[in-house]
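Technical appendix A lists one of the benchmark inputs used to test multi-chain prediction within the project. The record comprises three sequence entries:
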Amino acid sequence: MSAQNSTAQTADPRVRQPEAVVGLSRSEEDIIKVLWDVTGNDAFSLKAPRRIEGVVDSDKLHDFAFLIWSRVGFQHLSAISCVDWLAEGEFELIYHFWSYRDSCLVSAKTRISRDSALIATVSDIWQPASFFERDVHEMFGVVFEGNSDLEKYILTDWDGPPPMRKDFVTRDFAHNHFHFRDYEPDWDELVKGGYHSNRGEGGTDV
Amino acid sequence: MKKTITQRSAWDKVLTNLQKRSLWMLHYCTGCGAVELPPTMTARFDMERFGIMPMVTPRQADILLITGYLSVKTLKRVVLIYEQMQSPKYVVGFGSCTINGGMYWNSYATIKSLDRYIPVEFYLAGCMPRPEAIIEGFTELIDRIDRGKANSWEDYYKNYEFYRKNQEHVFGIINTGNDIPDDAKYFKIGEAKK
Amino acid sequence: MSELVTAHDGRSLMPGAKSLENREYNLFIGPNHPGIEGNFALKLTLEGDTIVKAKTEAGFLHRGFEKLMEERLFIQNIAIVCRICVPDPDPNEENYARAIEVLADIEVPRRAQFIRVLVLELSRLASHLFTFGGHAGTIGLYTMPNWSISDRDRVLDLFEELTGGRVYHIYNMPGGVRRDFPDGFASRVRDVLEYIEGRLPDYDNLFFNNKILHKRAIGIGVLPPDRAMEWGTTGPNLRAAGFAHDVRKDDPYEVYDELDFEIPTLTDSDAYSRLMIRRKELVQTIGIIRQVLDKIPEGPVWNKQPNPLKWRVPAGDVYVRSESSKGEYAYYMVSDGGVRPYRVHVRGASVTHGVHILENMLVGTRIEDASQLMFSLDACPPEVDR
């Protein structure tokens, strides 16, 4: 009985959760085996202590997200990250699931094509995903089918391309769109002549 | 219609004295520099001994403190607030992001140079300025008001066309509901060129 | 029948409407408001003074951090990364440094790990004192911010002595920390801890045992414990709902597995419990800092990597998690073997607290408690916007 998971040991009646959550914590190898048994996916492997990683097909992701909640017992979706692999023409979405019972993170990676960036939503199973998907949609342009809440949140006045994509260069945009102050001081003069504060009280020699 | 310091009547001097000792600062934390404002307002550095207090509504505030960077979304609100403040009003640029973009110089969402959009009285350098620097800045402002030199607010009426053009370039046309050329006539500040 | 009045943009306003459809009205608590923590807007629909629908609006603080980080070298990012979370900047630096250390397999000296824990816990202390002040301000007890933010300044003085900056430190580097303690620093830390511990009875008398706070915060803003995990709550808000989960215990990093501390929990899950959880954590934090000062070994503090302008971090990806004062704080870093990070994704603690948990919890509360609810959840807008 590990001391870490003392509250997950007994079924807490206030917490609405499936049966799989209750029980002793499992080791990482056991979790990989359970994932294989439940989802049929044998691509998961242990990367580091408490970190399991694996690849899921994009059309099987919604089922995976449901099974990992209901049958494997993971309770927390920590984040949905998106990486733009411009050279390969793909977006990679990574779903980070955390289990309070086992103290282990499972990162499920999936790839979708960059041109038709479409994937089913998981916000019907995981409530925080509705905001995470909204964020990825706004920044990358990925459309999550089934998520009715994909309006712009942060970039409400923005009408350019999704800014986190790799083909949008922010430095060029900033230089073209905004004005910088024209200030080209002659540093040698300033240093030689001493610094004069603009209060007019006399300068202090540098 | 600025009178030189020798031409000011006794009433002007009394007015300036009262004005400089009761500047109310708008309570708006626009950027990451705002975390140094609570220490300045509370017991250790105590800004209130200069008469500077936070005020919640722009209609009754004198100082607009732009603490740090301004994203384009916030700039729209700041322009609305600035036009709602009653003159004379003083904008203080706080931190190096208002001067030339600061560390977000290559960001697509922040503005780089504040005085293209609203006239700025003075800047406080730093990232962020310490509470002692803020207080020194405010005493400088009080000093300037005393000498009759804190008149950057008139610039908005004189060069309204310039400011408006820059604002619209960044966030498009908005209807602020304030008639600036009309206010300019009230203050007898030249003719705001349309 | 009186004439219909038209507003300046052409809408007609009907005075004296008697149908039910006009009982609700919209109220925007916009970004310029002292009752909002930071620069954030709430769009509320009210009926009378009860909120029936709430939507948050963020984006006023957006800088595009993740994009900025992709265009800078690994070492240049250290200077900007602390500004993602304004009241509690150290978890950012530590997570970033740890992500690079995992990818590049850099070993951190033991002394540096202890110093990192010290800096993280001092930052947690400062952030909790700031939250007390903010929460008290929403109820109208204005003496508390004056006390707690001034006491927080003593912690900031310690930071200034150690790192050179009051709020943003730029102190954690991949490989360790930048410099060692100044002379006599440990005794000054102990003095400040003793001072803050001595102030806790004053805080109790002034604020935590204050009848006004009890009336205004007990039973208000209840986060239903059976929905807490479903909604993605983490950190002190989860512990106030009865779950003893803390990333420092579940997923230990640095030297937290060698330190002895407890995880306080309460079961009421209202605004008062969330406040009291932070007060109890303050006591635990003081204990952790004392243990660090007792157990810290001698040795180097920085495993210096050569050629910082030409660091190449090996390709790979890593997800590092930590416990900031607001909840679970995580970084996902992808490197492609170059001199710049390929992708850095910041998962702030407030992406769940400040967005949909706030929207869910505001329904059914009264307008006078809305501001207190936001402060009690400790939702920090810069983390949402990045």
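The beta strands of chain B are 24-26, 53-55, 63-67, 90-94, 122-124. The first strand of chain B starts at residue 24 and ends at 26. Comparable benchmark entries are summarised in Table A2.
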